[in-house]
Amino acid sequence: MEIYRAHVLVCKGTGCVASGSEPIMEAFEKEIEKKGLSKEVKVVQTGCLGLCELGPNVLIYPEGSYYCTVKAEDVPEIVEEHLLKGRIVERLLYKERDTKERYRSLMDIDFYKRQKRIALRHCGLINPEIIEEYIANDGYRALAKALTEMTPQQVIDEVKQSGLRGRGGGGFSTGTKWQFAANAQGDIKYVVCNADEGDPGAFMDRSILEGDPHTVLEAMEIAGYAIGASEGYIYVRAEYPIAVKRLEIAIEQARNHGLLGKNILGTDFSFDIFIRLGSGAFVCGEETALLASVEGRRGEPRPRPPFPANKGLWDKPTIINNVETYANVPEIILKGAEWFSSIGSEKSKGTKVFAVGGKINHTGLIEIPMGTTLKEVIYDICGGIPNNKKFKAVQTGGPSGGCLPASLLDMPIEYDTLIQAGSMMGSGGMIVMDEDNCMVDIAKFFLTFTQEESCGKCPPCRIGTKRMLEILERISNGEGKEGDIELLENLANSIKASALCGLGQTAPNPVLSTIRYFRDEYEAHIKDKKCPAGACKALVHYEIIADKCKGCGMCLKVCPTQAISGERRQPHKIDAEKCIKCNSCFDRCPFGAIVKI
Amino acid sequence: MAVALNQQQEFTAKLKQIEEMLKKYKGQKGALLQALQEAQNIMGYLPIEVQEMVAETLDITLSEVYSTITFYSFFSLKPKGKYQIRTCLGTACYVRGAEKILDRLKTELGIEVGDTTDDGKFSLNACRCIGACGLAPAIIINDEVYGRLTPDKIPDILKKFE
């Protein structure tokens, strides 16, 4: 094996690829070759580093220098200065938002130093398309340990004692789930990986699949050994092409290395894994619907029991865990249940990955110990709210979760505290909202989503969410009536109690939580016909304040419907008839002369 | 006339290709979704001729094929435009103004979500989270992501495809 004195890690996660990391990587390769450094410096593509917003991201080791928003024209300078002369290019280093300080190593910056990476341990560190890099980082050692030193029951006990709970939604004990499937009668059993990440605004599973696909394969094999299964299926969204490609590569490599297939590592244990592509149906994240879809049918859920542990895929005992849950398993087997359960809080062990987005300075992917407070995540790690705006709410749990107000910012993030507050952990989407976001509008957004994604099998979900959505639409159109809030609550509670599956049962949560914490906003819409945040189109109109308008004509130019008129250097006017309330003029005006009333 | 003939030939050739592809799924249980995904990759959409072919090969009813196609948003019964625009309406994009981006696209193209322009050039769709939350609001045109958008950037982006 060749030894290199430096490694250039280029993030090739979806976010950075969209920002243009592919040409950056090519530029590095070309420039390094040009300087004759090809034998000394290696360029490596990695999975997501986390700070997607500042992409394309480049990390150079051994220093750990973190360069962000790198452009192709910066590459010759980095190669010349950093790699050839050993001088770090200060101007491209990550800059701390508050102190404006530039740190020389990734591990010194606030965004990273407060994180604890278990599920994401390899993301951004190894090349996901090269199995040797995974193996060099303890990859497949946990599988070897399980197969050669542990009985299946010992594996299950270890996972049970670790306190690991499902990272995809409900938070059920993973070890207990495995025990049920192990106890179930039957000679054919299945292991399924739920990679149908449908929560709009969550992308941790995709990042793990893209950045560390082997860890999921290894964990599924360990699970297969524990319950006595010999086949596994990964159900992954077709919308994640990079993840699918890397999984295919990983499966192929593992088979070629005797780490997947017949007689793994020379033992009696045989196990193989197949990929099935999801076709865009959120409800397929629900386990019984997912199984129906793997079987090639419409993804409709069915009543439980029987639970999949007894009657799952093709009616055989089956365990279904989500990607992030699996990503924790090899570390638990290697380092032990005691180590894992020492991290996190009393009832929620280990760490959780969150995709933090919305009105936040550092959009991206983070992994924190359970029990960290919302405030630490939003302000200390992710740098707070941009443009000096005021924090209004944070939404967790996606369409199944709720919006939490500023008064709950000190709440520790745990499965149970979130549920008590009317939200849930879900898969780990965390969307931050500021004063410009209307809570009625957000509730409507989520309900539109669940309404569209409702499979239509059970009436409470199919009809109930439709009626709720109609009421919300009425409210945001300024046609709300006295008693609408109570009617919403009433409907919501009936749906929660009677819907068939998790999608329906949790669909009312965004509405209930916004009513609970932001009732005054609902009342303003209904009684005063006003949207305090200025987001509900029917309740706002745009005006130009003549005193502030300098007649620069910028609004006139951006208006797509020619609704703005006025002479140069004279105050302009908006024709309310023509205005489609697109907000373009408001965003563009440099003098703050346009107001929403 | 010649164009129509050409299209017809292309269609028949693709049908033939799908027929070949389907052979491997014959007699296999649970292959419907995979078969449909592959067929759509070849044809671009799933017209009745393809649906009939799939039903026959897999020995299931046409109604089952049709109900499965309409259940999943990935499948399309109509041909799509040359440039497929998908607007991300995931939560992160939504709170950063994705709806205004979508509205502007509708005004510029003069079509609604799910439609294709008369010249067959653009089709417009909404989708849920493309995972580019760091670049919100974002759209995808074919496979390319355009991020950090404001409504007034839309006309310039569309011009690139004219």
Summarize the model shown:
Chain A has 597 residues and is α/β, with parallel strands linked by helices. Helices cover 39% and strands 14% of the residues of chain A. Chain A has a five-stranded mixed beta sheet with strand order 10-9-13-11-12. A four-stranded mixed beta sheet of chain A has the order 2-1-3-4, covered by helices on one side.
Explain this structure:
- The complex is a heterodimer of chains A (597) and B (162).
- Chain A contains 23 helices and 17 strands.
- With 597 residues, chain A is an alpha/beta fold.
- Chain A has five domains: 108 residues, Glutaredoxin (3-Layer(aba) Sandwich), CATH 3.40.30.10; 210 residues, Rossmann fold; 84 residues, Ubiquitin-like (UB roll); 89 residues, Up-down Bundle (de novo design (two linked rop proteins)); 56 residues, Alpha-Beta Plaits (2-Layer Sandwich).
- In chain A, helix 7 packs across helix 10 and helix 10 packs across helix 13.
- The relative contact order of chain A is 0.09.
- The model of chain A has no long low-confidence stretch (mean pLDDT 94).
- With 162 residues, chain B is of the alpha+beta class.
- Chain B has two domains: 70 residues; 77 residues, Glutaredoxin (3-Layer(aba) Sandwich), CATH 3.40.30.10.
- Helix content of chain B is 48%, strand content 11%.
- Chain B has seven helices and four strands; from the N terminus they run H-H-H-H-E-H-H-E-E-E-H.
- In chain B, helix 1 packs parallel to helix 3 and helix 2 packs antiparallel against helix 3.
- Chain B is globular.
- Classes of the chains: A alpha/beta (597), B alpha+beta (162).
